[in-house]
Amino acid sequence: QAVVDFERLAEHAAVFQGHDVGFCCLGTTRAKAGADGFVRVDRDYVAQAAELARAGGCKQFVLQSSQGANAQSSFLYLRVKGEVENLVRAVGFDRCAILRPGVLLCKRQESRPMEWVTQQFLGVVARVFPTAFSVPVETVARAMVACVLQPGEEKVKVLENKAIHELGKA
């Protein structure tokens, strides 16, 4: 494990050398980082890390994005997620998987009251519609690994929430 300063990521290029696969789950919230900070973390840091990984020899990249990601969205969160997806695609990995999970179900150390309420509600909804709106983080992690272990023919593969559930159970 290496600790890097994302504000000076180019100075840590050696950390990105010699890896076949890159996994990226980096993200923050607008509430925590402000609008500019959110864009910097969720788009700029991710895109720069992908570029450094590719320059270091990385052949395959797996990105956790978000359900509804769309570079044309009027919502900042969805627009930034769509923009970073496009930037990562443009890097030119041999293979790239983009996972678009719904609400991530997990226990956090930090307090996010609205997210907690949403998770409680979606936990009930998930009993009836298990793949519609949410997904446990463990399922996302298994699906990300499965993208590497069971690669398809596509250069870029986009998995929506239901496909993440299916692949994460395999």
TrEMBL record:
Domain of life (superkingdom): Eukaryota
Molecular function terms from GO: catalytic activity
CDD domains: CC3_like_SDR_a (cd05250)
Domain called NAD(P)-binding: residue spans: 4-151
This protein's GO CC annotations: cytoplasm
InterPro entries reported in the protein's UniProt record: NAD(P)-bd_dom, NAD(P)-bd_dom_sf
GO biological process: import into nucleus
Signal peptide (residue range): none
Pfam families named in the record: NAD_binding_10 (PF13460)
Assembly description: Monomer. Forms homodimers during oxidative stress. Interacts (via N-terminus) with elongation factor EEF1A1 (via middle-region); the interaction is direct and competes with EEF1A1 binding to guanyl-nucleotide exchange factor EEF1B2, thereby inhibiting GDP for GTP exchange and reactivation of EEF1A1. Interacts with nuclear transport receptors XPO4, IPO5/RANBP5, IPO7, IPO9 and KPNB1 as well as GCN1L1/GCN1 and LRPPRC probably through their HEAT repeats. Binds NCOA5/CIA.
Name the record gives this protein: Protein HTATIP2
Gene it is expressed from: Htatip2
